[in-house]
Each structure stands twice: as structure tokens, then as C-alpha cells.
Design a protein that fits this description.
By secondary structure, this protein is of the alpha+beta class. It contains six helices and ten strands. Helix 3 crosses helix 4 and helix 3 packs across helix 5. The longest helix has 22 residues. The chain is globular, with a radius of gyration of 18 Å.
């Protein structure tokens, strides 16, 4: 396995590759910053397209402001879109044989180990049947352990670098996620939310709702499991409440 010293030097923390003009402003935070928190603070003034990311060699952390036209309940599948976009971005850079899967609703695993999660934040006090002024979706994923870390100390967790993502930088993954997110949202707008749901479900841990038929309620993003004539609903709103 390659060592961290083989990473491409300072490239891991330099500026992002070029992004479409829809992303503006683009704000870079220093290591230790919280991209989602900053995007939430900027959302009321700067609106859709605001992108905040963290310059870091150790993790991928990025958040984008969206302005949905539907109610908060109907907009919540944006979280699933963010997850699928990350999987697509990672798939273009990582080993094709290494599986990337989801825990319900927002956990990300690579080769069975937890690497990160997605988040969705809406304006305080926005009800499920109201159209929010904005929402923020974000991704955080561990890219590499610190130089003095012990990768095996927690077998339930891993990093992208440890699983073979040695030929890409966090900045490149960040930009790739942003581009894939816009493509995923365009598919949603043009073909309906089912396209987002199907792509998410294809990566959802098979143990979730094992033995049942799984679906996503397009009106809420809830996970619906049908088994033996019974229907179980796992609300997305409760699972991702801030």
C-alpha cells in the first residue's frame, strides 16, 4: 500500500479544479472549519450555488446551498442525491472492485468500513409543508489518517486512501462531487425523483429491510419497506434532523 508521503505534495490542499459558473461564491475554509455551518450562515445572503469546502489533506468536506421550489418534505431527497453524487464521483477515481455502499440514511462505507456521511440542513422553523428559502446539503469523508495514526485501530472505519484512492486529491474529489451533484439534480428535474431514489437504493446496505421490497416515498424521501403484507416506514426527516 502506498504511504501518505507518496501523495502529490501540496496539491491535496490547493484550490479546486474549475467548476461551472453556477457555483458562486466558492469559499475555502482552513483545516478544522465546518463547511455545512458556514454554508448555512451564508445561505440567506448569497443563495443557491454557494459552495463551501475545507482545504485539507485528511478529509473531503464540502457543502452547497440549494433553493428548492418544492416543500421541505419533497426536497429532502436532495440528501439522497448528494449521496449518489459522491458515489459517482468516487467511482471515477477509485478502484472499481472496491464497493461503496450506504447506511440508512446518510452513512457512507467503502469496502465495508465507514468513511463519512451526508448532511442536510433547512432554515430554522421551516415546516415540512412549507417551501424553504434554502437548504444546504453537504458531504464529509475521511480521505487519509494522520501520519502518526494507526489505520487498524478501529476496524469499523477506514479512509479513502487506505482503500486505494491514491491517485486523486481531496480537492479533486470535492470538485467532482459538485459536478456530479448538479448532474444528479438535473436528472431529478428532468426525469423525476425516482431516478435519484433508484440510484440511492442500488447502494443501500442489503441488510436494511432484508427480505422486503424497498422503495423511497417521492413525497418525503422516507424509506418504505414492504414485507409479508406489512409496510414499514423509516422517516428521512427524523433520521437527518439536525
Amino acid at each position: 500500500m502506498p504511504q501518505l508521503t507518496e501523495l502529490r505534495g501540496s496539491e491535496v490542499s490547493e484550490g479546486l479544479p474549475d467548476l461551472p459558473s453556477v457555483f458562486t461564491p466558492i469559499v475555502a475554509l482552513r483545516e478544522g472549519g465546518d463547511a455545512v455551518e458556514r454554508a448555512v450562515a451564508m445561505a440567506p445572503q448569497h443563495g443557491a450555488g454557494t459552495l463551501v469546502w475545507v482545504r485539507s489533506w485528511a478529509r473531503v468536506e464540502v457543502a452547497v446551498v440549494l433553493e428548492p421550489e418544492q416543500t421541505l418534505a419533497a426536497a429532502r431527497p436532495a440528501l439522497l442525491a448528494a449521496m449518489s453524487a459522491f458515489a459517482d464521483a468516487a467511482g471515477t477515481h477509485g478502484p472499481p472492485e472496491v464497493p461503496l455502499t450506504f447506511d440508512w440514511p446518510a452513512g457512507i462505507r467503502v469496502n465495508g468500513g465507514v468513511v463519512g456521511a451526508a448532511r442536510l440542513i433547512a432554515p430554522p422553523g421551516c415546516t415540512e409543508d412549507s417551501v424553504p428559502d434554502w437548504i444546504v446539503v453537504g458531504i464529509e469523508a475521511r480521505f487519509a489518517d494522520s501520519a502518526d495514526g494507526d489505520p487498524g485501530r478501529d476496524p469499523g472505519r477506514t479512509t479513502l486512501f487506505e482503500e486505494g484512492y491514491a491517485d486523486v486529491t481531496p480537492a479533486e474529489l470535492t470538485a467532482s462531487w459538485a459536478r456530479h451533484l448538479m448532474a444528479t439534480l438535473a436528472d431529478w428535474q428532468g426525469r423525476g425523483v425516482r431516478t435519484v431514489a433508484d440510484r440511492y437504493l442500488a447502494r443501500l446496505d442489503p441488510a436494511v429491510g432484508e427480505g422486503g421490497r424497498r422503495g423511497i416515498d417521492p413525497a418525503t424521501g422516507d424509506l418504505v419497506i414492504e414485507r409479508d403484507g406489512q409496510r414499514e416506514r423509516r422517516p428521512l426527516a427524523e433520521a437527518v434532523a439536525a
